[in-house]
Write a structure and sequence with these properties.
heterodimer; A: 261 residues; 72% helix; B: 311 residues; alpha/beta; Alpha-Beta Plaits; 2 domains; 10 helices; 26% strand
């Protein structure tokens, strides 16, 4: 075919805009994020309000972690959102239309990762900070609340949002590899099962295998206390998180040109 | 122009497309014919670079489809009208694809008007009938005003009005000088729509000819003759070089000799003739006969019980 001359920035803008239209034009996006926000706020407030001040062990008590405890559940909604961004195209057959319109499949995947990742990051940060403030409000009556100015607090809350961004990309990578919505969502659920499996197979913490568990890396980023042992720094946990997203997306990118659409 | 050269696609030991070589030229409607499972859709997916051929290649305007940038301006295709996200509106469905090729909202509204679904543009596609989804798919193919159009079974699900509209659309697109490839498993439909036919069966090319050539080459005609002295007449005609077969009801199916000759011979030998009719096999029958030898899935003919059981 005759080559159409289109500059690279124009093509990037075209693909990002196309993926943004896809994300904003389906209800599942709003549903996933609204459910996530509601759950995060409700669990954060409930956890703060039900703390029994008479039985607090101040060596482990973390008011930040407490207000963010909803995120354990909420990450599932982010993972599903990421998976659906591509698995819904495979399940419906829409992916053929997308690839016929843009035969550079890796560029399509990259644009999807940029758009769903950006939505996941913004929504993750908004929800994390909202849950933090709501949780601290519930704790303030008991004089247990902290502020963002306290040591490590801002980093923990922002880290929670970052972790939700990572889970979104992990979901996208799994969706792109598995190509079926149900299978991809089941795979996202493995995030919860992975810690149990690691505990079962490697009960000795000295093996340090626990350091590579995604959920634990996320928890250590989003708490002010290093009660998840093993990480020499928060930076190490951040690297583990990024590696999960990067490896899955790279595998998806490798497969995407090798399989018939 | 679409050119396939020795195009082959295997799935394990199953050969879906076997060494197809053909060209689809501009300015006419090319019918892509074959029974279900013949490899039409697989071929179309390979043209669009969605499936990669096991061997051979196919080019669009001289280049591989997968190397093209903003291909909607060159090729518009409708493969599967149901391959849409049911939760998206018709407008957003078209717009997200249009935008990836630098096509704006204005053109999306235009194509919605062309296919006549502008009133439901902001309704969710999940509630559309198959006919409406076909129109939506055709709208998507028209987005880039491409010189090549490719539709897989576009008549499916259309009402009579929609079918007439579709035929007219295909004809006018070809008249404008575009390359139009339309697949169908219905010869009767292609007889009304196509100027040229490419017929495949079990992944192999059976015919690649203009509609007229295809009809001439494949639709035989014979003469049905009824006579009270059928046996005598049969012998007589055979002596004069005709091929004669006896129909189940005793009538003779005669070929290789024309009606005046049959009539004169019978008169010369005082054999009465009750009926003398020229029978033209329809294009449908010609296609069925061709396809019969290359159909993957056969339903047994209930009028011939046990014909497949060999002693």
């Amino acid at each position: 075919m005759t080559a159409t001359t289109v500059t690279l920035p124009t093509r990037v803008a075209d693909l990002l805009a196309s993926e943004w239209i896809k994300v904003r034009s389906v209800r599942s996006t709003y549903l996933a994020l609204i459910v996530a926000a509601a759950a995060a706020l409700a669990i954060g407030v409930f956890s703060g309000a039900t703390v029994n001040t008479a039985h607090i062990d101040f060596t482990t008590f973390d008011p930040v972690d407490l207000s963010l405890s909803g995120l354990l559940v909420v990450q599932l909604a982010f993972g599903v959102f990421g998976a659906l961004a591509i698995s819904s195209e495979h399940s419906t057959g829409m992916i053929r239309t997308s690839f016929a319109a843009v035969p550079q499949r890796r560029a399509v995947l990259a644009a999807k990762a940029a758009v769903t990742g950006a939505v996941g990051l913004v929504a993750g940060e908004v929800i994390s900070f909202a849950a933090f403030f709501a949780g601290q409000l519930a704790l303030s009556g008991k004089h247990l609340s902290v502020t963002l100015a306290d040591p490590g607090v801002f980093r923990a809350v922002a880290g929670a949002g970052f972790y939700l961004f990572i889970v979104t990309l992990v979901g996208l990578g799994l969706g792109a590899i598995i190509r079926h919505t149900a299978g991809a969502i089941a795979a996202v659920g493995l995030i919860f099962i992975q810690p149990l499996l690691v505990n079962l197979v490697f009960p000795d913490p000295r093996t340090r295998v626990g350091n590579y568990v995604l959920l634990w890396a996320g928890q250590s980023i989003s708490s002010t206390r290093a009660h998840v042992t093993g990480y020499s720094s928060v930076g190490e946990a951040v690297v583990v998180c990024i590696a999960y997203a990067a490896v899955l997306l790279a595998a998806a990118g490798w497969l995407i040109t090798r399989r018939d659409a | 122009m679409i050119e396939a050269h020795d195009l082959t696609k295997r799935y394990g030991s199953n050969v879906a497309v076997a060494g197809l070589t053909f060209s689809v030229l501009p300015g006419r409607v090319t019918g892509f014919l074959g029974p279900n499972g013949a490899g039409k859709s697989t071929t179309m997916r390979m043209i669009l670079g969605l499936d990669s051929p096991t061997s051979g290649d196919v080019t669009v305007n001289g280049a591989r489809y997968s190397s093209s940038v903003r291909p909607l301006h060159q090729v518009g295709a409708l493969l599967d009208a149901n391959a849409v996200h049911g939760g998206r509106s018709a407008f957003d469905h078209l717009y997200c694809i249009a935008r990836s090729n630098g096509i704006g909202r204005g053109r999306v509204r235009e194509v919605l008007n062309i296919v006549g679904i502008e009133k439901v543009a902001h309704k969710r596609v999940g509630g559309f009938s198959l006919g409406m989804k076909q129109r939506l798919g055709i709208a998507l193919a028209l987005l880039g005003d491409p010189a090549i159009l490719m539709f897989d079974e576009p008549i499916n699900g259309l009402d009579p009005d929609g079918i007439r509209w579709m035929r007219h659309l295909l004809a006018s697109m070809a008249q404008e000088g575009r390359t139009v490839l339309v697949s169908s498993h219905l010869m009767s439909e292609m007889a009304l729509t196509a100027d040229h036919v490419i017929v495949i069966g079990r992944g192999r090319l059976i015919a690649d000819a203009s509609l007229a050539e295809f009809v001439d080459a494949n639709s035989t005609s014979d003469v049905l003759v009824r006579s009270p002295r059928a046996a005598d007449l049969s012998r007589l005609l055979t002596e004069h070089g005709a091929a004669v077969a006896t129909e189940p009801d005793g009538a003779l199916a005669v070929s290789g000799i024309d009606t005046p000759a049959i009539s004169s011979l019978a008169a010369a030998h005082n054999i009465p003739i009750y009926e003398l009719v020229v029978r033209h096999a329809s294009l449908e029958e010609a296609y069925m006969r061709l396809a019969d030898t290359s159909t993957e899935y056969h339903a047994e003919d209930p009028s011939e019980p046990g014909k497949d059981i060999q002693p």
